[in-house]
Amino acid sequence: MSSPTVQKGHICILDFGDRHFFVKAAFGEQVKLAANKSPRVHTTGLIGLPYGCVVEVVGNKLVRTEDDLMSPPLSALEDGKGEKEISSTQMTDNRDLVDSNTSQKIKQDDIQKMKEAGKSGTDIINELISSSETFEGKTEFSKAKYIKRKVKKYVLRARLVRCTSSTVCSLLFFKDAKRYMCLRPDSLAQILSYSNVYAGATVMTFDTIGIPTASIVERMGGKGRILAVHTSQDPPHKQMFERFNFDFRHQAVLKFVSGYELFQGAASESAGQGEKLEDVLGIERDSMVAQGWPVPLQDHTRSHLAEMESDKKREDFLFKRASRFIRKVTRPSLPETMDYLSSQVDSLVICSRHDPLLVLSTLFPYLAPSCPFVIFSEHIQPLASCFDHLKTAQSAIKLQLTETWKRDFQMLEGRTHPEMTMDATGGYILTGVKVSGKVLEVEKRGKLVGMGAAAARNSGRGAVRKKLKDMEEEEGRGKKLKVEGGGGSKGGDMSKGGGGEVS
Amino acid sequence: MLSRPQSPELDHMNGLASNAALDDQISPTFTSCSSFTESLIPRSSTISAGDLVVIYSSVSELDFVYASPGSKHSNRNGTFHHDDFLGQEFGVKVPSRSTDGFVFALRPTPELWSSSLPHRTQIVHDLDQCNVILYLDLKPGSVVLESGTGSGAMSTAIARTVSPGGKVWTYEFNEDRVTKARDEFARNGLADIITVTHRDVCGKREGDVGGFGDFVPDSSADAIFLDLPEPWEAVGGAADKIKPNGKICSYSPCIEQSQKFCAAAEAAGFHSVNTMEVRLKEYCVDCVLVEDEIVCDLPFYYGNKAVSDRKTGEKRKAEEGAASEASRGGGLGGGRGGKTELRTRPKQTMRGHTAFLSFATFKVGR
């Protein structure tokens, strides 16, 4: 997962600047990286390359190049024509431009012939430049722009990027935001931080897109436990977890919990047969300890491996064995599930297309008091319902319903400005901290009660009122009743906030 | 529900930490639980003496205390005795003994800490913090360099993510802040993860070498975070310490600073330089009464008499009855045949700017 080089079987990202691809570095894997007639490319060449390097498509192979994504044709240009450029910079602008589409002497067929002759993309671009009538007349900036466009077209050069929560989320958002609930990386960042995920925590997730759960696995570093509640028969998001290249240790924190136990009330039914299950659980646990799985290789397995014909077969065998273990470890049985659910979790993350309020009301009891929760949705209305529900029940504080606004910038000397397009939405987030609702009984000192009341009435009143106002205003809930005729602009829950509760 | 078995075998099933076959894959720090998770985020659900407790009065008013028997904490809500919440569950509502006010005693998180900590400098706000952590690709085990330390909010947030096995080397040129931050980290159980160094990484004064110091090996940092007035001065030193394909981030309020940083980063061997800005837009949820008919007042040309004529009798009574019913029910439901609906609107004010975040990735050599 954190190895600096691409390992066999790793899924990584090829970043072409305007296009991105997930590719699996493995023998026999092929990917199509460009449209139409381009050949399928073998990914074997990626194995062993350091993450962050630049690769170029040469024939049907991926080969590491020394250069930067864009630089080689640019530098080739500078070598030959550098001086001329500088001298002509002053005089060049668009006053003599005639947009007749005849300035390029090379035809499409010629380019195809050059390609077939095996000429590299850099050579083709240099040919195009030298046979363009208008190139010399361009300003320096538009020359660079011209070359950049041609590079994109003729040089298949990509940066090899490691799959991490930020890169995977960016890529998927870029590709198909709607499919992933418009979860933009900055929203993911908030989910991960506000839910207070850390190595060693117990987190409950209800996630129908997979990115948050996989990112939490990454943040856990193989320590702690994730109770991933799902509604399908089999654990979901297999493909998403594969993209993160988790090793055994990291993935072992995942425990898939079927929502059936929680939403269909099976949990309470089986709790009735507690004693029976206790026995079963005991036996199962004993057996696991006895078997000690996932087991180191046993002698008979080693000899079995030795009998195999090729290393390829041995690798396949060991890979399958590991997958089997991970399958076993991440799919707790019913007694184990009940055991996990018997203690409260440290944080709750909901990111689902199901009604968040339904999900929240079922999962909220499993969250320990004073622990944070995050609910993500691409729509604001369901989160408003959750907000209102929690506020009315007084079961959470520090409630915040937010949306983020993210803008990228072009940063160039003298030409800095925000990018011309931006994403209008990255989803909505509701965060808060659960409170137990338990109010302590404290002994009020006799005299002070009177004084306290007096203080509240006199000097303290301002403070209490201020606090009530704060609680209302800042938690975003000015409960306004718009009754016409000025009938009842009631202060809503003014009475809920403050003093009354002290016995 | 089944009771939770406390056997070590179960840990063996979950974390596999005790499996000898896997031990060599696991870094030595992995097996010993970091003090971070034990202290700043107490694993026990009850408050015991010495624990850091965040005292929540309202969204804008948070303080913190280290729980100790016999102590008192006063704020505008009243005076609160530690003895009242010691031994209680985190998240409990604590009434004041002297007034009608109350507070919540919360389990600290880096977010709660950054809104309750003593501000010595402007801090990196939550939204920027979490984006920096995500885009720097931090995870348990990462080694991070940070300058300057400031009030330590960012260091604390980074520490949560890189622990266990990770390390935060943080640098601050103001000696007073160094001492205070060091004490705070020690008190919060972060001393093993965060090391504070008194140093100007830009090396602005004469005789000042700058850089991140020899005690951090070259090419060892997974990520570097710069929150400096002149971040471009620190880029050279950062390039020495960063791993190939490591990430750097500069946090600057002014666009000129970011521009200079981006140019310097590119010159120092960083690529994929990009700058972004994130803002938080907060929403209010209003419970609005929606009328099901539009009732108009009689226009002037009917005269005053007509008004009183028409608005007499049963209709007026019905109206009054409905209005008083509405006020009894806290205004929810009822009313004049209307219904209540939840509506959202943005909060009137929002923070318009904090800083530009510039990210870059270091080149990989052959």
Automatic annotation (TrEMBL), chain A:
Subcellular localization: Nucleus
Biased composition (Gly residues): 484-503
Keyword terms of this UniProt record: Nucleus, tRNA processing
A Pfam family this chain is assigned to: Gcd10p
Record carries keyword Iron-sulfur: no
UniProt record, GO biological process: tRNA methylation
An example Gene Ontology CC term for this record: tRNA (m1A) methyltransferase complex
Gene3D superfamilies in alphabetical order: Vaccinia Virus protein VP39
InterPro entries attached to this UniProt entry: SAM-dependent_MTases_sf, TRM6
Region (Disordered): 73-103, 459-503
Source superkingdom: Eukaryota
Recorded family membership: Belongs to the TRM6/GCD10 family.
Descriptive protein name: tRNA (adenine(58)-N(1))-methyltransferase non-catalytic subunit TRM6
From TrEMBL, chain B:
GO BP annotation list: tRNA methylation
Pfam families: GCD14
Primary subcellular site in the record, as a coarse category: nucleus
Domain tRNA (adenine(58)-N(1))-methyltransferase catalytic subunit TRM61 C-terminal per the UniProt entry, residue ranges: 101-361
GO cellular component terms given for this protein: nucleus; tRNA (m1A) methyltransferase complex
UniProt catalytic activity: adenosine(58) in tRNA + S-adenosyl-L-methionine = N(1)-methyladenosine(58) in tRNA + S-adenosyl-L-homocysteine + H(+)
Keyword Transferase attributed: yes
Top-level enzyme category: transferase
Biased composition, class Gly residues, residue ranges: 328-337
Region Disordered, annotated ranges: 312-347
Entry EC no(s): 2.1.1.220
Subcellular location: Nucleus
UniProt keyword list: Methyltransferase, Nucleus, S-adenosyl-L-methionine, Transferase, tRNA processing
Binding positions (S-adenosyl-L-methionine): E172, D227
Keyword rRNA-binding: no
GO molecular function term, any single one: tRNA (adenine(58)-N1)-methyltransferase activity
Family of this protein: Belongs to the class I-like SAM-binding methyltransferase superfamily. TRM61 family.
Descriptive protein name: tRNA (adenine(58)-N(1))-methyltransferase
Species in which this protein is naturally found: Triparma columacea
